[in-house]
Specification:
This is Ago2 protein. One of its GO terms (molecular function) is RNA binding. By secondary structure, the chain is α+β, with helices and mostly antiparallel strands. The protein folds into three domains: 74 residues, Beta Complex (paz domain), CATH 2.170.260; 139 residues, Response regulator (Rossmann fold, 3-Layer(aba) Sandwich), CATH 3.40.50.2300; 194 residues, Ribonuclease H-like superfamily/Ribonuclease H (Nucleotidyltransferase, domain 5). The chain is built from 14 helices and 24 strands. The protein starts with a strand and ends with a helix.
């Protein structure tokens, strides 16, 4: 809420902060005859003296409405703050400034360890575990559609959009997906409502949402065989983000007969055309192989999977995560593999309380990390898996994300009981073999090769730098041979001695130092303990890191945990829409 003079504004979203303080942030004001700073404007317009002119202003609702910070109030409790990701331009700058090559990071750490001036605060004794690392071998391994355009500039024109539709169809066919000509290539009627909101710099519009719903229902009725709707967006404005969330909410929770794929055309239609190869990775798992069915049209598959991942083992992989501070509540997401390819997943999403309660039913301040409704979510996923595979899984590997060391006992106790309750609700005799693994990404452990360093780049300018293949915009930066290769596993000497755990670098280090994921095996069925050891868990996890369908390389942590994070993010979009 903002209140100054006789003006009171409520219900606005904080868009950002000005880059200058109130006494130096200027704008054009016809009433005062030219450019004027915020402090002078408030004195002239409202007769108010700003007490803290050296503080920046809050951009309320949009970038043009700048209110001195002292007049803005946050209403309600601690969970009503919309804490989200940084704006893209800020995130890119943070990533650029914090990235550090592994050899440089290694040298700085060793310099700190050997600095006697730091006193006893730094433990200078170190042990060389260079021989405890090992590197795992990587695993070998006619659609109806339409296009909507929500771009607001003079270009692209109708002919440009039609050209893009043709290029899209060609790229799909080149990748082995048979796409017919687009059913329609158009600016829908809802574009007028969207354009009006964008011109007014609105962040939310019920009228636009209703117009989008009418158009989507009309498309579903007119084109009953439609399987994919491609939507072109022209910018990253707040109303465009709201449009994205509305379309996802309506198509996935109300209509459900076709999927959507968004394309950002902020830099023009020609630049969007360059993204088509990457878009194919996202489209293939979305398009069904049959007009009716849950299996994706195309999937990657392991040619030599670990024995526990083979079809005859009937193994189901699960992933789970919780996201907090979403419209005042938390969102829990649980996914389960569709079949033995382990590339596509069923998902369940639930909202839950964002905080825990003590024995007196009073609110604690810590966030609730446990998945409250895990039992019913798991039961639903088991029923879907049975419908697809004609039997229940015999082994379940459950990957959990977002749990710190201090929450292991509470989460394990609650979720192990929830999983067991789900098994019993399916059948009193159903008792699959269960493994529970927690993955942690936020820690201070880094790995590097003992021999290696930053190699000089022979190229000049932006022709070299990223992977030394002419990609990226590196300026003379060569390859760092201190970077550990994908598949590097470390456990001896640095893992926790109390239980089975290990560090795994599964991704190719492109920028900075690769961060390993720390996996903890919190529960393993006694029936598996005799045939499954830590080496097997490492291999299974590394193979699953290659099954992320949106990337053509292995990713930083196991795919089921990744997909659970996506499910939580989608639930967040539903609530915000």
């Amino acid at each position: 809420m903002a209140e100054y003079g006789k003006v009171k504004v409520t219900g606005k979203i904080v868009y950002g902060l000005t880059d200058k303080p109130a006494n130096r942030y200027e704008f054009d004001c016809e009433e005062m005859g030219g450019r004027v700073d915020v402090v002078s404007y408030f004195k002239h317009k409202h007769g108010i003296s700003v007490q803290y002119p050296d503080l920046p202003c809050i951009q309320l609702g949009n970038a043009r409405t700048c209110i001195p910070m002292e007049f803005v109030y946050v209403m309600g409790g601690e969970h009503n703050l919309a804490v989200g990701k940084l704006r893209p331009e800020f995130q890119q700058e943070v990533t650029r400034r914090t990235a550090m090559q592994p050899s440089i990071r290694r040298d700085q750490i060793m310099q700190a360890l050997n600095n006697k001036e730091l006193g006893n605060s730094v433990m200078r004794e170190s042990t060389n575990y260079s021989n405890s690392f090992k590197t795992l071998s990587p695993p070998k391994f006619n659609v109806s559609w339409g296009l909507w355009c929500f771009t607001t500039e003079s270009r692209p024109s109708q002919s440009d959009v039609s050209w893009f539709a043709g290029q899209f169809k060609t790229s799909c066919n080149r990748k082995g997906m048979t796409f017919a000509e687009a059913k329609f290539v158009e600016w829908p009627d809802a574009f007028n409502a969207y354009y009006k909101c964008r011109s007014n710099r609105d962040a939310f519009s019920p009228e636009m949402r209703d117009a989008v719903r009418r158009n989507l229902e009309q498309v579903a009725q007119t084109h009953k065989d439609l399987k994919l709707l491609v939507v072109l967006l022209g910018d990253n404005e707040a109303i465009t983000d709201h449009l994205y969330k509305c379309i996802k909410l309506i198509t996935e929770t109300e209509i459900g007969t076709f999927t959507t794929q968004f394309v950002n055309c902020k830099k023009g239609i020609e630049d969007a055309e360059k993204k088509l190869n990457n878009l194919m990775l996202k489209i293939t798992p979305k398009v069904p192989s049959m007009p009716t069915g849950s299996r994706a049209a195309f999937n990657v598959a392991l040619s030599e999977p670990h024995p526990l991942l083979r079809k005859e083992e009937a193994t189901m992989i699960m992933g789970a995560d919780v996201t907090h501070k979403v419209a005042g509540i938390s969102v829990a997401g649980v996914v389960a593999s569709v079949d033995e390819s382990y590339a596509t997943y069923f998902h369940e999403i639930r909202g839950q309380s964002p905080y825990t309660l003590n024995t007196l039913k009073q609110r604690n301040r810590q966030s609730e990390e446990r998945i409250i409704d895990l039992s019913s979510m798991t039961k639903s996923l088991l029923e879907k898996w049975k419908k697809t595979n004609n039997k229940l899984p015999e082994t379940i590997i459950y990957y959990r994300d977002g749990v710190s060391d201090g929450q292991f006992v509470n989460v394990l106790k609650r979720e192990l009981n929830g999983l067991d309750a789900a098994f019993k609700s399916i059948s009193a005799t159903y008792n699959p073999k269960l493994i529970i693994i927690v993955g942690q990404k936020r820690h201070q452990t880094r790995l590097w090769m003992q021999e290696g360093g930053l190699q000089a780049d022979k190229g000049k300018g932006k022709d070299k730098g990223k992977d030394d293949k002419g990609k990226g915009k590196g300026k003379g930066k060569g390859k760092d041979t201190a970077q550990v290769p994908p598949g590097t596993v470390a456990s001896e000497g640095i893992a926790q001695p109390s239980h089975m755990n290990f560090f795994l670098v599964s991704q190719q280090g492109i920028q900075g130092t690769s961060v390993p994921c720390h996996y903890h095996v919190l529960h393993m069925d006694q029936r598996l303990a005799k045939r499954v050891c830590v080496d097997d868990i490492e291999t299974i996890t590394f193979q699953l890191c290659h099954m992320y369908s949106r990337a053509d390389k292995s990713v930083g942590y196991a795919t089921p945990a990744y997909m659970a994070d996506h499910a939580c993010e989608r639930g967040k979009h539903y609530l915000e829409a």
